[in-house]
């Protein structure tokens, strides 16, 4: 039993039709993780009762692995209606997490269309790798800058040579709250909350991807504050749909799957859809290998007509490793370590 100060804090923002996606993401987190988690769910008032109802229906063996709190959508700076309409409904809420979660030291934010294929504990450990100036971590938007979106089309500053993708983002909120950020508006640094609305006002006609673009602008001016983690922690269709280009995923397997472009809900990338449906439909108390891993292998055979489907080992490597660890832990707990010899 860990004290609350050692729990993992996981935040998500869910509006509109994102209820199911969010629940599947949270399910993937509890299926594979070890340390207790605190879920911070930001959502519309209409979705709150359903989140509470669904999470309370999960088996005790899983609900004891987390606590959850549901928050309303609020924007503390500028025009709330402008923020609400930025890119996708409510997506800009993520920018205000350091202000709202004043008692939280560190946080993992993920989009609703993310799936964990290994324990959340593992990405949480990356916080320890931050140097003294780093206060957030994201993966590159593209592995090949010359064909990336930012390097070809962006009308605003962006981080590095290819920009960063904000769908999976680690944050040291304590450091963010205390930092002063360089910017293009005034010669002195600004606090995080004071910077957000003026930054949006300056660049609102140049940005395409909403809050992600604003984060790219912030870290363009403050690169020393960003830790960049490899692509297998935020693996998207772009990493395989034109040919495999995430080398770390080829070596270690996908750790965190990010099904952007709506790929869980159409047939354009059946490999991503198969993983989503496997986790969504998995009965909590069943055997992971029998009810998820083996059916998933068979399902992947139907996806070999796509470039992503031709590299099934990239998608299955981490999930197999994670399931083996979970099975061995289960056996040790119920049989005893001495009888394992």
State the gist of this model.
It is found in: Membrane. It catalyses: 3-O-(beta-D-glucosyl)-L-seryl-[EGF-like domain protein] + UDP-alpha-D-xylose = 3-O-[alpha-D-xylosyl-(1->3)-beta-D-glucosyl]-L-seryl-[EGF-like domain protein] + UDP + H(+). 38% of the residues lie in helices and 14% in strands.
Topology:
Layout: E1 8-14, H1 19-32, E2 37-43, H2 48-56, H3 60-63, E3 66-71, H4 80-84, H5 97-100, E4 106-110, E5 114-116, H6 120-124, E6 136-140, H7 149-153, E7 164-172, H8 173-178, H9 192-203, H10 211-221, E8 226-228, H11 247-252, E9 256-258, H12 270-281, H13 288-300, H14 312-335
Parallel strand pairs: 1-2, 1-4, 2-3, 6-8
Antiparallel strand pairs: 4-7, 5-9, 6-7
Family: Belongs to the glycosyltransferase 8 family.
Catalytic activity: 3-O-(beta-D-glucosyl)-L-seryl-[EGF-like domain protein] + UDP-alpha-D-xylose = 3-O-[alpha-D-xylosyl-(1->3)-beta-D-glucosyl]-L-seryl-[EGF-like domain protein] + UDP + H(+)
Function: Glycosyltransferase which elongates the O-linked glucose attached to EGF-like repeats in the extracellular domain of Notch proteins by catalyzing the addition of xylose.
| Number of structural domains | 2
- For the record, the CATH architecture of the largest domain stands as Alpha-Beta Complex
Q: What share of residues are in beta strands?
A: 5-15%
- The helix count comes to 14
Q: How many strand elements?
A: 9
Radius of gyration: 20 Å
Mean pLDDT: 92
Which strand order spans the largest sheet, edge to edge or round the barrel?
3-2-1-4-7-6-8
Could you tell me how far the N terminus lies from the C terminus, measured between alpha carbons in angstroms?
28 Å
């Amino acid at each position: 039993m860990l004290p609350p100060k050692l729990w993992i804090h996981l935040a998500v923002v869910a509006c509109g039709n994102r209820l199911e996606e969010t629940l599947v993401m949270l399910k993937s987190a509890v299926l594979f993780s070890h340390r207790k988690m605190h879920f911070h769910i930001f959502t519309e008032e209409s979705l709150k009762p359903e989140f509470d109802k669904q999470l309370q229906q999960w088996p005790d063996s899983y609900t004891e692995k987390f606590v959850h709190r549901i928050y309303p959508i609020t924007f503390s700076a500028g025009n709330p209606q402008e923020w609400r309409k930025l890119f996708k409904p409510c997506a800009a809420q993520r920018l205000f997490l350091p202000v709202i979660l004043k008692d939280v030291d560190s946080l993992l934010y993920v989009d609703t269309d993310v799936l964990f294929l290994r324990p959340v504990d593992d990405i949480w450990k990356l916080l320890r790798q931050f140097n003294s100036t780093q206060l957030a971590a994201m993966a590159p938007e593209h592995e090949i800058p010359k064909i990336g979106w930012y390097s070809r089309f962006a009308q605003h500053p962006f981080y590095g040579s290819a920009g960063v993708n904000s769908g999976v983002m680690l944050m040291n909120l304590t450091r963010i709250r205390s930092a002063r950020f360089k910017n293009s508006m005034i010669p002195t640094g600004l606090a995080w909350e004071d910077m957000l609305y003026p930054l949006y006002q300056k660049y609102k006609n140049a940005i395409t991807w909403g809050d992600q673009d604003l984060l790219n602008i912030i870290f363009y001016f403050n690169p020393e504050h960003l830790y960049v983690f490899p692509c297998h922690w935020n693996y998207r269709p772009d990493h395989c749909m034109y040919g495999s280009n995430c080398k770390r995923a080829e070596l270690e397997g996908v750790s965190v799957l990010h099904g952007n472009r709506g790929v869980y809900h159409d047939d354009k990338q059946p490999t991503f859809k198969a993983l989503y449906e496997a986790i969504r439909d998995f009965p909590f108390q069943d055997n992971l290998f029998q009810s998820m891993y083996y059916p998933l292998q068979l399902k992947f055979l139907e996806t070999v007509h796509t470039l992503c489907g031709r590299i099934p080992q990239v998608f299955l490597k981490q999930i197999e490793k994670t399931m083996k660890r979970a099975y061995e832990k289960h056996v040790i707990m119920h049989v005893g370590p001495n009888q394992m010899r």
